[in-house]
């Protein structure tokens, strides 16, 4: 019985310490934060423009284009990390497949850049 307790003691200590640190991090902002609410701080913030009453109001399409750019480059990073780790194993075919993938992404990026999706007035 003593060996079982000795085997699980580091795990129990780790879990207890995690709960203490997590609880402290949850309570600390309420205890230490400076509280000075004003109308600007309490207002809703959505997509970079002022809050309004009607949810069906038109908004600028550039927000959509920026989100698409984010998804494109997020996918690029998601594919580049495993490719970089297995670079020696994928061989020449894997190398050229990734070059074609990056080329297609670059063409899309240049297209959006030429259309003015990255320019803000």
Strand content: under 5%
Count of separate DSSP helical elements: 4
Describe the global form. flat
Mean pLDDT: 82
**Which secondary-structure class do the elements indicate?**
mainly alpha
CATH topology of the domain at 56-121: Methane Monooxygenase Hydroxylase, Chain G, domain 1
Kindly describe this structure:
- With about 120 residues, the chain is an all-alpha fold.
- It has a domain at about 55-120: NADH:ubiquinone/plastoquinone oxidoreductase, chain 3 (Methane Monooxygenase Hydroxylase, Chain G, domain 1, Up-down Bundle).
- The protein contains four helices and no strands.
- Helix 3 packs antiparallel against helix 4.
- The longest helix has about 30 residues, at about 1-30.
Please give a handful of descriptors for the protein shown.
121 residues; mainly alpha; Methane Monooxygenase Hydroxylase, Chain G, domain 1
Provide a brief overview of the structure:
The chain is mainly alpha-helical and 121 residues long. Helix content is 73%, strand content 0%. The radius of gyration is 25 Å and the shape is flat.
What is the strand and helix layout of this fold?
Blueprint (H helix, E strand, L loop, with lengths): L1 H31 L6 H4 L19 H24 L1 H29 L6
